[in-house]
Amino acid sequence: MPADERFAVRRESARASVPRPLTAAPAPAGVPLPPGLALRGRLATGARRPEAARGSGRGGSGSRTPRTGRGGGPRQAYERARRAWDRPLTAYYVILGSSLLITVLGLVMVYSASMIKALDISKPATYFFGKQFLAAVIGGGLMLIAARMPVKLHRGLAYPILMVTVFLMVLVQVPGIGMSVNGNQNWLYLGGPFQLQPSEFGKLALILWGADLLARKQDKRLLTQWKHMLVPLVPVAFMLLGLIMLGGDMGTAIILTAILFGLLWLAGAPTRLFAGVLGFAVVIGFVLIRTSPNRMSRLACMGVSEPDPEGGCWQAAHGIYALASGGWFGSGLGASVEKWGQLPEPHTDFIFAITGEELGLAGTLSVLALFAALGYAGIRVAGRTEDPFVRYAAGGVTTWITAQAVINIGAVLGLLPIAGVPLPLFSYGGSALLPTMFAVGLMIAFAREDPAAKAALAMRKPGVRWKTMRRRVKKRSSGER
Known about the structure:
The protein is mainly alpha-helical. It has helices spanning 3-17, 35-44, 51-55, 74-85, 90-120, 127-148, 151-156, 158-172, 198-219, 226-230, 233-246, 250-266, 271-290, 293-300, 314-324, 351-384, 388-412, 430-448, 451-459, 462-472; strands spanning 178-181, 184-191, 194-196.
């Protein structure tokens, strides 16, 4: 047999050995084929796809959206980031993460900024760090308790916390019980190296009590009348302010006033009413500043770049020196020069200046970003809730932390007078750290109370996920493998 004939025979036998695709049998009249069988029948009979579908496939000549990289372009990246930010648990994780990062970084900077001060008073280098670490551990427990407490229990604690705080603030003014620190009579001695500043708890007390009061009045639709909006909120706030000012603590009084204005703004106070209360507070503040040479000297130190020949504005000027010598990335942890006795209060009011000197602009911008994230998450919690108490309390806590951070950092930068308030969660001071961490736990609890966040947290529990998987898995027969 010739070679070409043998090749043709082998080719025919090879074609015969390949199994042919199943073709759909012709359906009876009026009986449609199942979709899968009809599709296989069309493919087997050589039916071709439409040109538009063929062209849109891989390698086709149809129109395609051009890709601008692996991520799909900046617009797609923005959409993915926006969807991720709009998830139900975003505020929960941002509040928890940013507050913990600020606290941990604050512990590091307290140790670095206070070691020289501790050695100067014949104490171990870890003296102030140990006290701050103990306060952070106790504050972490308070934050966990507050985060797990229901909203009704927080409302129930409003009046007891207010009464206990007022009682302690009265005790501060009793001779022999209260203590004076740096000219301010606002401390209670607890024994050993521990002291307590009740006015720091007054911020938390005003927020919880004011939020409960305004929520109950809103439920009764009484906030449309100005007398119900102001009474008894403003008189009680002025009572707390009076007790604080008796001790000479102007900085804490400013923060308490900011909290009061925040609550009134959230309650929808009219512009004329809001402006009236603000004007009254400005007049009182002006009188208190004009009648105190110490406060007038602090006001005169705004924007100075060097101390005067008589030694005035020393702290403000050396705070600017510390920030200016830090550069982009700082001189390194522990390498600050200003903390060697040049800058007063390097671990409390002016710890941000030491942070700028040792960590540079990158470190200070990181701290600012963490506070901005915490403030935005608090606004998000207050804006997305339907519970009036949650809205007022979350807004009050956000106003408290944000206003105090702005006043502290503004004083270090020379943009505001030195008010003597610590940087929240960052500066040394257990009396300031404990109520602030409890307030952060309060916001975490509010973020968890959102219905969408509740559903998302419930789905992440191991038991719920296992039950969901069991429902989705189809049971097999005993003989099926």
